[in-house]
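Progress note, sequence design subtask.
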C-alpha cells in the first residue's frame, strides 16, 4: 500500500484526546484513515507494516466494539497483540495503576491501548511509560478514536465537516463520546447542537461553542446529522428522568421526530444501541439513512491509521534519542 503523500501533521507520541488538537492534525488522521478503508476492502487485508511491534490492549471496562476493533486493526498490520484480562490481573490483587504501568513498561511494548473507568487514568499511564498510549475511553472524559471514526463516516457521506448542522442527542452528561465529538466537530467548523433533558446536559455546555435544546423538535430542525447516544445508566447516581417509557416518548428517535431534520439527514449511534430507549428499531435499521454499521467499518480503518501514525512517530523519536528508549 502506498504511503500518504501528505506530510505527517500529527507529531505526538500519544492519542489521549481531541481537545487541543489543531485542524490539520485531525485532518491528517482522517486522511490516513481513508487509506485503510480501501485496504480493508481488498481480498488481502493484511500488511506487514507493524511486524515486530507489540501492542497491549488494556481494558479496565467491558467493551466489544472498541477492543475487537483495535485487535483486528493491529493484526491486519501484522503486530503482536496481547489482550489483558483485567478480571484476572494484579489490579484486582491490590496493585496500583502506577505499579501496573511500571510492570508493563518493563516488557517494552510499543503501544498501549487503554480503556479506564476513571477520567485521567489514561493520562496517568501515559506519563509513566516509554511507549505510545491510545485512549480507548476514560470515564466521562474522552474517547478520541470514536470521534475520529464518526468524523470519517460523516466526511465520506457528506464530503465535508465544515458548515454541517449536527445534533448530538441523549445522555450528554455521562458521554465521553459526546465530549470528543464536540471538540472535533467544532474544531473542524461544524455547527453542533446538544439535545437532551436539562438533567442530562453538563453545566456550562454552551461554553464549548454548542447550542443546547431540550426538545427534539427544535434541536433536530434542519440538521444534516442526528447522532444518538445511549443512556449510561451504569454511570448514573440518582434519577435523571421519570421512566424509560417517558424518555423514549420525548427523546427517543423515531420518524416523527426525524421529520424536522433534512430529508437526507444521516442517523448515527456509537453503539451499543438500546432499541426502544433512545432509538426506534425501524429507524436504526433504515439503511438508506442509518450509517451505524458504516461507523463500525470506519472504526477499524481509523484504529489502523492511529496505530500506523503513532508507531511511525515512536520509531522516529527512538532514532533521534536512542539512549532514552
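Output:
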Amino acid at each position: 500500500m502506498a504511503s500518504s503523500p501528505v506530510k505527517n501533521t500529527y507529531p505526538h507520541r500519544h492519542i489521549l484526546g481531541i481537545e487541543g488538537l489543531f485542524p490539520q492534525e485531525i485532518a491528517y488522521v482522517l486522511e490516513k484513515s481513508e487509506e485503510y478503508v480501501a485496504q480493508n476492502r481488498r481480498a488481502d487485508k493484511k500488511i506487514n507494516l507493524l511486524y515486530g511491534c507489540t501492542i497491549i490492549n488494556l481494558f479496565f471496562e467491558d467493551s466489544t466494539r472498541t477492543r475487537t476493533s483495535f485487535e483486528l486493526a493491529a493484526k491486519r498490520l501484522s503486530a503482536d497483540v496481547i489482550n489483558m484480562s483485567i478480571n484476572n490481573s494484579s489490579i484486582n490483587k491490590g496493585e496500583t495503576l502506577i505499579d501496573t504501568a511500571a510492570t508493563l513498561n518493563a516488557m517494552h511494548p510499543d503501544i498501549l491501548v487503554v480503556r479506564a473507568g476513571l477520567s485521567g487514568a489514561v493520562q496517568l499511564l501515559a506519563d509513566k511509560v516509554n511507549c505510545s498510549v491510545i485512549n480507548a475511553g476514560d470515564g466521562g472524559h474522552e474517547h478520541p478514536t470514536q470521534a475520529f471514526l464518526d468524523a470519517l463516516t460523516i466526511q465520506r457521506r457528506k464530503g465535508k465537516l465544515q458548515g454541517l448542522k449536527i445534533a448530538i442527542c441523549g445522555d450528554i452528561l455521562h458521554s465521553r463520546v459526546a465530549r470528543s465529538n464536540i471538540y472535533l466537530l467544532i474544531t473542524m467548523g461544524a455547527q453542533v447542537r446538544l439535545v437532551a433533558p436539562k438533567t442530562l446536559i453538563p453545566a456550562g455546555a454552551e461554553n464549548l461553542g454548542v447550542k443546547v435544546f431540550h426538545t427534539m423538535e427544535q434541536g433536530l430542525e434542519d440538521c444534516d446529522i442526528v447522532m444518538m447516544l445511549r443512556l449510561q445508566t451504569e454511570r448514573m447516581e440518582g434519577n435523571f428522568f421519570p421512566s424509560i417509557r417517558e424518555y423514549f416518548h420525548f427523546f427517543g428517535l423515531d420518524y416523527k421526530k426525524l421529520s424536522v431534520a433534512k430529508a437526507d439527514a444521516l442517523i448515527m449511534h456509537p453503539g451499543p444501541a438500546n432499541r426502544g430507549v433512545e432509538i426506534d428499531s425501524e429507524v436504526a435499521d433504515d439503511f438508506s439513512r442509518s450509517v451505524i454499521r458504516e461507523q463500525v467499518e470506519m472504526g477499524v480503518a481509523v484504529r489502523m491509521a492511529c496505530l500506523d501514525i503513532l508507531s511511525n512517530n515512536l520509531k522516529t523519536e527512538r532514532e533521534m534519542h536512542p539512549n532514552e528508549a
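The longest helix spans residues 292-320. Work on this subtask will continue into the next period as scheduled.
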